[in-house]
Design brief:
Oligomer: homodimer
Shape of chain A: globular
Largest interface: A-B, 177 and 179 residues
Largest sheet of chain A: 7 strands, mixed
Distance between the termini of chain A: 48 Å
Helix content of chain A: 40-55%
CATH architecture of the largest domain in chain A: 3-Layer(aba) Sandwich
CATH superfamily of the largest domain in chain A: Type I PLP-dependent aspartate aminotransferase-like (Major domain)
CATH class of the largest domain in chain A: Alpha Beta
CATH topology of the largest domain in chain A: Aspartate Aminotransferase, domain 2
Chain lengths: 633, 633
């Protein structure tokens, strides 16, 4: 696989430029000749004579000059292609993705609907189905599509979850209005008429049982009538304010508004999403994480127990596969078990979402060339490596147990922006957010080609679908394809983890690290014997980060980023670090902990000679900068 | 300008392919040499010897074969470049945009934050500022950025509007908690302490007065304390359910939930947005339109009066500049006057939003080369044309009066997807949706380079910013730049409007058209003496549309789309059409009216010989297809 790896990217020196140029030109000329061959009888719109006019010449001159200005300006961009940049989740793109995007862009299809993108809508559904198959979703019942990025994908997850979780309330009220019995399975397996259930029971139907009940109503009531009855009672239709009054008027049961249980390491955009949806940031319950930055299954169980006690419904549980700041993979197998136990023990149901925006491609490691699941021992044997361990494999394999999963091809998929993906295990749930425009609807049955109906966005680039699709064809979603990229970059992070902590690596300073990361993101603090308070440690790390950050006036020799762990979300992470830093925990609640952070996106980071040794280059740069900061005091 | 027009696009036959190829190669090689020149001492990661390995060869073979598969598949895409496609709002892209996107994509900057996109974040802010200047916003107080498209941009508009409109309630409660006086200007000009105001008055502060009051609170209370007090009371923080209870508990005033007054021609995504935000689809009040498909100012005034009577607050008013189905431009000057009158007469305030996703670039017609405003007579004199009339110019000029405006560069900007834009007149309002991540915050004062703080999306393509920026440099936002494209394509739509209605143009059939469109979108129904009911007319038009739609198995000679006008939203549009169709209005409420629809994106549509005459080609194709349908009927 190391041989193929050399062909997958343009290369830090543009080593594969000749190949890339040839293929880019082929894509471009192929497109031009498509135009030429399209109704040749139409003749030419722009003639040779037109190209000899002063106005034409002037316009071309402006284009060339302004392009030169742009190209010159872009030189000030960040060299993400280089092993010298190990900062954000941003690196090289696969050659396939670059060329696929370019080829698609020339056609400029709009994947909102197949009639404006007959080819790339198919490619988008195929690419999403490939991701769904990789994580283990059943292709017959799941669904997925691409988004502009992880935030929109995660937004859709919670938007749909809100629809599904409140569906039983809507169904019960609509069934009363219609005078129809609607049977539903309760968590204990018994069947009840939704109309007879108390609010608490309605708010605790399993997502799949809610969707079954939805289908049951449609089976007995004509479509239009059912639609009208549901619209009169649905949150999305009557709005949150009227919905709140309706609950009070009907059940007179002042339950607290539902909460979302989110790993405290989850991305900052989750709060943005919860605010925008009207759920409210205070309805987030942050679930503590352990020293590995993984959500504590026991803490999740306690959060469920607290909800049961306060009679608070749980809209959703958000687990992370590949945290932004630590590269941690929640033990999703244990998380899913806790969700099941909460249902059994407390009668609490929830939509389980896995935010695998960064880490989703890790599931490729669990697939052989034929798509069959690989066990931990099989993966290790195949790769001749002691990594990953069985717990890691169980966690990644458990993505198939989540109700929805988000994966960003523009992170570990090495696809150019914009490319996120939303995957839904039970595709029936998408009906809860569907919308019908008058000018796009062709009666195509399940309208699979009309994505705009079920997604937040409308017009969207078919080029992104072409990029993801082509990249998945060239670098397959298997242990030898994307799995290799995940393994190599994770190995890079572990190597950096070890190198930073090697005796004397940072001279008079030393690195205090989290445990070995689950993926390719590493966070650590640098300290020095002269740093005796947390504030001093933070100042040192801020100063190092400032000198090593990209995008400033001068480009440092090596580039990384920083973050600040804050209490209480990161208490579990920080405790051992504070101890190792020897600064006591007194300042922690107010100061937080500033750490340096590197995402190893460089697939050649630990390729060995003659590849440049950026691993030790980076460590050396941290030492040089740290000592310079200290000496300048 | 017709001379420059020949240089702005690749051309329907790829006439400018040589130029494009040269510039694409220049952009590519320039990027490759940037890589080569970046720390040349690092040496090569991929060596010649690596390229002779079987694994390398195999990977290259896969790339080439799969790319060929993709290129072959793309041939089934829709020929948007051709004058034979006059369907959706999708056409050619400017050369500048194509090359700019490609150049930017090679660097793959992420415009979520300037440290991951030092160049393209600046270009994004510049491109948005150019659009803001075009519509007449004050650069010192406005703000804008690019989005993945119009839906997200419109989402942001209503998301921010919700924050601003409910801000006085939050401020009043926080001021009570803090025991601080917060002065605010009432619609009648008097100053009151927010704490003393009834709920109705709080819900009817003008957006700018609400933001002034926000600043006033911050002026007297330390930042952290103010933040805590506001968070304890803000809708986005406590959520809609608790907010609803809070209103009831504090004021005991059972006001109906606020509504959004939306032109009945507005895009279908508005309902999606209102549902997602938790406002609820039923809180949309559709404002009727006239025969031109423009929002009735009188109807808007009546809607305001009805709200005043039922004591219903108005979150926002959504006016459209360039409706999706009719290309209509609301008389925004009159709409804004009605909003002012509603404040004076009823004490009703609202956030005024202009959805100019399609039509926003029309404002370029009102700018001379130096950026100064042009009057109607000046525009007509400059272009030597009788179009546009003064009412049109007043409506477009009034975009500067809207609180927010959305414009899609990927529509009339001829930019590849994804490129929408959100523009905000009073940038202070963005604070109401801001979000702070721990790992991106550099203390850069107003943090203008950290877009992720104030927008819905996170990671986003800097390449899109490069495309919009370069295109605006080459095709300026003036009467001779984008104004020329708007004028030419609008002239195309008017020419089609006339040609369809020329005697005998459709043989035994005839076209029934809306009045002349305000922009480049045209909708019409074909009828025949044998069609005596609405159902028959609809069947005829459905059959024509089916044979002329793109994206199917066989490509028709000319391509267009269709839509269905529905009651009651389109009552005003349909009344004269039904009369002219002679079918009576009895079936209208249930059947709606199916019409054919063309967006003239082709800038050469009315260029005259030797450019192919697609205008009459399209009319002839409609006739041929209509007669074929009838003869097979």
């Amino acid at each position: 696989m190391s041989e193929a790896l050399r062909a997958w990217f343009l290369g830090p020196r543009g080593e594969n430029a000749e190949l890339a140029e040839r293929l880019l030109l082929e894509a471009f000329r192929d497109h031009v000749f498509w135009r030429r061959n399209h109704h040749p009888e139409d003749g030419f719109t722009i003639r040779e004579a037109d190209r000899r006019r002063p106005g034409y010449d002037d316009a071309v001159a402006v284009l060339i000059e302004e392009l030169h200005g742009l190209l010159a300006a872009l030189k000030r961009d960040v060299p993400f292609f280089s092993g010298r940049y190990q900062g954000h989740m941003l690196g090289e793109q696969t050659l396939a993705a670059q060329i696929g995007y370019f080829a698609g862009m020339l056609y400029n299809p709009n994947n909102v609907v197949a009639e404006a993108s007959p080819v790339t809508t198919r490619l988008e559904l195929e690419a999403a189905a490939q991701l769904a198959a990789m994580i283990g979703y059943d292709p017959a019942t799941s669904w997925g599509h691409l988004t502009s990025g992880g935030t929109v994908a995660n937004f859709e997850a919670l938007w749909i979850a809100r629809g599904v979780r409140y569906l039983p309330v809507t169904l019960a009220l609509a069934a009363r209005d219609l005078g129809e019995r609607v049977p539903a399975a309760l968590p204990d397996g018994t069947i009840a008429d939704l109309r007879d259930l108390p609010l608490w029971a309605l708010l605790n139907l399993r997502p799949s049982d809610a969707l079954d009940a939805h289908a049951a109503l449609h089976a007995v009531v004509p479509r239009t009538e059912a639609h009208r009855a549901l619209e009169a009672r649905a949150l999305s239709s009557i709005g949150y304010q009227e919905y709140t009054r309706q609950l009070a008027a009907t059940w007179d049961d002042p339950l607290p508004p539902a909460v979302v249980l989110i790993a405290s390491t989850a991305h900052y955009s989750w709060e943005k999403i919860v605010r925008a949806l009207g759920i409210g940031a205070q309805r987030i319950v942050q679930v503590p994480v352990d020293a590995h930055a993984r959500m504590h299954p026991e803490a999740l169980a306690e959060a469920f127990a607290a909800c049961a006690k306060s009679r608070t419904a749980v809209l959703g549980v958000v687990s992370v596969c590949g945290t932004t700041e630590e590269g941690a993979i929640d033990r999703l197998d244990a998380i899913a078990d806790v969700c099941n136990a909460a249902r059994r023990e407390h009668g609490l149901a929830a939509h389980l979402h896995a935010d695998a925006c960064h880490g989703g491609y890790a599931a490729a490691l669990t697939r052989d060339a034929g798509g069959a699941r690989l066990t931990g021992p099989q993966i290790r044997a195949h790769r001749g490596d002691a990594w990953p361990d069985d717990a890691w494999v169980r966690a990644v394999t458990a993505l198939e147990r989540a109700d929805s999963v988000t994966i960003d091809p523009h992170k570990m998929g090495y696809i150019p922006y914009p490319a996120g993906a939303f995957l839904l295990r039970d595709r029936r749930a998408r009906a809860l957010v569907s919308q019908e425009p008058p000018y796009l609807a062709h009666d195509d049955g399940d309208a699979s080609g009309f994505l705009g109906r079920w997604i937040l966005e409308g017009s969207k680039p078919g080029a992104a679908a072409a990029a993801v699709w082509l990249s998945h064809r060239v670098v397959p979603l298997t242990v030898d394809g994307y799995g290799h990229l995940v393994a190599e970059t994770s190995a890079g992070a572990r190597a950096l983890h070890a190198a930073l902590q090697a005796p004397g690596a940072l001279g008079s300073c030393r690195a205090v690290c989290l445990p070995e990361p689950d993926l390719n993101v590493l966070a650590w603090a640098v300290t020095h014997p002269s740093c005796t308070t947390l504030r001093e440690v933070n100042a040192l790390n801020e100063a190092i980060a400032e000198r090593m950050r990209a995008g400033g006036e001068r480009e440092p020799a090596y580039m990384l980023t920083r973050t600040r762990f804050a209490s209480p979300g990161c208490d579990g992470i920080a405790a051992p670090l504070l101890e190792e830093l020897g600064v006591g925990a007194g300042e922690w609640p107010t100061e937080g902990l500033v750490v340096l952070r590197s995402t190893i996106m460089d697939p050649y980071f630990v390729a060995g000679p003659p590849t440049p040794d950026h691993l030790h280059g980076l460590v050396g740069a941290v030492r040089t900068v740290a000592e310079a900061v200290l000496s300048e005091g």
